[in-house]
User: What shape does this take?
Amino acid sequence: MKKFMLMTVSLILLFGLGMTVNGQQIIGSFPTMDGGFEGQTVGVLVGASSISSGTQRTDWTTSSSNLGTIYETGGRSGPKYMNAFTESTAKRWQSPTAEEGVITNTEYTVQYFYKTSGTTATAECMQIGVSPDGTGASKYYPSTAPFVSLPGTDGVWTKYSAQVTVPTEGGPGKYGIGIIRVSTPTMGVALDIDDFIMYTGTLDETAPDVPTSPAIASETSSSLDVSWTAPVTGVDGGGYLVVRGSADPTTAPNVNGIYAIGNTVATGEEVVYIGTATSFTDENLSSETTYYYRVYTVDKAFNYSAGVAVNGTTLGVTGPDDPVPTLSGKTTTSLSFTWNKNGAGDNVMLVYKTTDDIGTPVNGTAYAVGEHLADGAAVLYNGGDQTSYTHTGLTPNTTYYYKFFSVDGSLNYSTGVSSSAKTLMAEPSNHVASFTATEVTYTSIKLTWSDNDGDYPAEQFLVVLETASSFAPVDGQVYSDIGENKWVKYVNHGVQTVTFTGLDDGVTYYAKIWPVSNTSVGGEYYDYKTDGTVPELSQATQVYPSLPLVENFDYAIGDLLTNHGWVAHSGGGTQAIDVTSGLVFDGYLSSGIGGAANLDNTGEDVHSVFDPVSLCLIYYPNRKPECGGVFLPLRSVNNWYDMVRKSMGERHW
Assistant: This one.
């Protein structure tokens, strides 16, 4: 019996890639057109003003940029769909190309489902088209005005179809397309589009006959062979679709709906097979579990027959106990494992894939190194002479998936132990560019740069600021501030700036920056780029202006100013000026430093002498109820008795 391996939605499409998978051809008259959009990349469609003769494309395109978007959820059948809108005239949405020469001079039906967000219809501007060779031989319906106005659907998917006769013959080197077009005037409202189908002849809305004699055979602990008999009337250019559930999956597929493997018809009802064969093997199942299936015939227009039901139960797990594997090491291009054999000392088979869907080997089958399981997993090791293996030749920063099986003497396999591991990132390719000090204050320096990614971008950047340029990092080390004169910061990729604070004024600092990879893995894997020219710079902080007199009263509370160089020139000892707690002002540089002079009554006046600067009067309008203001007169030393004076009326410094 032919076997069909379950694949992810991104690999197998109901109406997508024109390919075979284990002998099964994807159904539809023109499967490469991907009318269900399940094989398309989410995002804005590529603008392609024309598709030249002999050109093949696998993506939906638009005749100008920004006319369409593929969305990941919300489609009519599979989750993806296309949104189309333009404020211009004479614009196209172009399908991927059909296979060589298959579109030729005959009549075609083109149909698709659309919906609008409200009840407003499009303008009378819509056309459908077919070309046997790129965009150069396009034929449209209607060919002339009046064109079609699509009614507003208020969010309900609605079918539109029409026929186009192609006058030009196809042939070798010609790759045709299907087209949705806006002629004139502009469309007015946006359309969501799904389930775009094209086939020869007139509109087909007749469902095919039901397949018969469904059966389950060749049960294993992880697979079931599902088969059926084709209807006598055939499939009319289509094939079959099979839905699986944990209970009978009674929900019918959407009429004219295009599904991909892995799509759901309803919650818990998954599409597990699409093709033209009348049997497949459903793999990667749970043991001792009953699975229910509905098999549908599908024709070229994606009309579905009624579903025929069948169910089967997987066997219980038999075989040896699993080995116990451990990831023992990793580099940029290798992953190493060790394992302990099971209690019976059975041989171990190790397989791997680049996707997380490794199945199980078939009991009684011997697998040599280099051979593959049915799901494509490659055998790396199979034997009993070693308990370790290093997988080499890998790609940096890539996750690989592994499964370890015990194999007894009768070639019975254990259920297997899954493991995944990621290779290390390669050392960053490039140093940063434009490493610059952009903001400098008395106590801080802000540095900026461009990450300057190469083939292997950095994960973080190590930035070091020093008072003497001497530091260089070593791989496998994580650094923090080193001593009094070295500051260290790790900055994430994409931030491209860092600020060092708490610096001294008027000091020259030296900065360097190194890209580093594997910072998310662990300190022992840090990989710094130290070769080439390491970006560096020197930058001095700003210098504070010199002050003629600085007095912070940084003495014990209650201590007298006259004990610290201040001279009483009037009223000495009477209500002597002492020290109290310091003052705090938001935004003032010296706020909260030291104490304060306590002027609480009339009596002693004091002064302190400093070198002359200029002659002026500074007034502080900080009034209290008991005083007129605070004054700081600056006088010559001969007039010291006027320098600091206090009274209830005014206070001078």
About this structure: The two ends are 105 Å apart (CA to CA). Residues 1-25, 615-634, 636-653 have pLDDT under 50 and may be disordered. The longest strand covers residues 191-200. DSSP finds no helices and 44 strands in the chain.
